[in-house]
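Just scan my protein:

. . .
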Amino acid sequence: MNKKYEGIIFDFDGTLVDSMGMWYQIDVEYLGRFQITLPETLQSEIEGMSFTETALYFKERFHISDTVEQIKDDWTKMVWNKYTYEVPLKEGVLEFLEFCKLNGYKMGIATSNSRLLIDSIITELDLDKYFDCIITGCEVAKGKPSPDVYLLAASTMGVNPENCLVFEDIIPGIMAGLNAGMTVCAVEDTYSKHLKQEKIELAHHFINDFKEVFSLFI
């Protein structure tokens, strides 16, 4: 066993679950309510932002009269059924979570998603038994690529940052883990496939799916 790692911290969307394409469709549908076409650059502009930061960005950029809380509430209602019935776990995730639990690793989630959604989805998928903490971007000063969310997760688990292994699928998330002084493993995802080489060059490790991750613990 590799004793370097004491804590394992996961991003959620695009890392544990295959949901990034779903969020693209949500953005299309949501802006469509206001007769606004989704800008081609929007997804890259909001990557890493917390749920609250993203709602504020939408409100200001698209001059939406609804409050930030109303925007967040609308998104939550739109995605709930999709998460429950349409979004699968990434291949090998359950096996890896069980491996980490059996071997005594502390585990956490550090996500840009909302607390309400993550808590509900983790419970619905029966994953809450694996995690010692769940930290969202709305609980820290700045979203990814700031290290705040990862540092808070490590602190909550009682693990030094240098002893944490992070799994991330997008560039701002990879940067957040690196900025926190943690070892980062990039995860393949269809949404960020065009950035695969950049992810490989930035992160310490790269996996196509969680079946490949066990080599990091030999």
Notes: Residues 123 and 210 are 21 Å apart (CA to CA). The longest strand covers residues 106-111.
